[in-house]
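Question (not urgent): is this output format expected?
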Amino acid sequence: MIQVNLDCEGPLTQNDNAYELCEKFIPRGGIFFANVSRYDDYLADVVRRPGYKAGDTLKLVLPFLKASGVTSAAMREFSAATLRLLPGTRQMLPRMAARFPVFIISTSYRPYLDALCDVTGFPPDNIYCTECDIDAYTIPDSERKLLMELAGEIAAQPMMSWPHDAAGVEDLDRETACVLERLEEIFWRIIPGMKAGRMLDEINPVGGTEKAVAVSESLERTGLRPSDVFYAGDSITDVQALELVREGGGAALSFNGNSYAVRSASWACLSPATAVIGALAEAMGNSGVASLATMSFDSSGMADADAVCDFLRRNGVEDDMFELLAQGRHEEEPRIYDLGLADIPAVITESEAFRKGVRGISVGNLG
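Got this back:
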């Protein structure tokens, strides 16, 4: 028996719901969110600020969404109207859920996951995500005005950058250090002094370590072990969950992942459609999680579409799944890399380019 744990945005959908909410409701909100997300990368990956985890962007932007007049109803309506499933998700998700335990572990807000459940029939009880009731918070008009001014200031800042091996502020250029200093003031001195600061204290996004906790909690529900888990994720918020599964002997898959996901996974899959996840899950369910290692990889560590299909047939995947795979194909065929054999920097370059092609450049660039 295996269980499947999936990130939502990336493996199942094309959206970045929080980015799109900001872009819709906050002036220059897409740039605002990208700058806050980059700050999140710095805090989570470079300085590893105590008590901060990847994905906490989703609580940092909430005061600004509230100041922009966003309500719980607006979040639900917007999420339902903008939900974009990857090809194959609508068919693959219920098919998997009928065969073995499946859990979605997402940093996204609950209204977005509710929209996914409404469309696919996936059980809400099998979802771990960021719970937030934005209507539970009230802020005075004076705070609304200041927050909107701060949002405009953040959107006007240059995007921070740093060397790959940066370990702290001493490794930043002067411009990035100045941006960082101002963001520190905004998020950890100004907003905590507001009524809106309650959101930073009370909202707990499911990212980073919280995703690993969710994997462990799902295993308590099924009675299985990390070696029985097939986990698919694509970003910095999946790092700890991917590492937990990989180190526990399960199948840790980067699906159209960025550098963070690729470096944390055992395998990397590049595909324009979700059906390959369902097909791999069926193969592993039939033969065991470790069976991924029996795929035929070439000297570069890659299994092309023919090798993937051969692996699926050898492991008892049913013919109708191949029909679903064929329906999901566009110009690109799925391919898989064994990250123990492949050139990791080359896979990262290829995967990040593929990711942008599937999800769009703005979303694909996010950590």
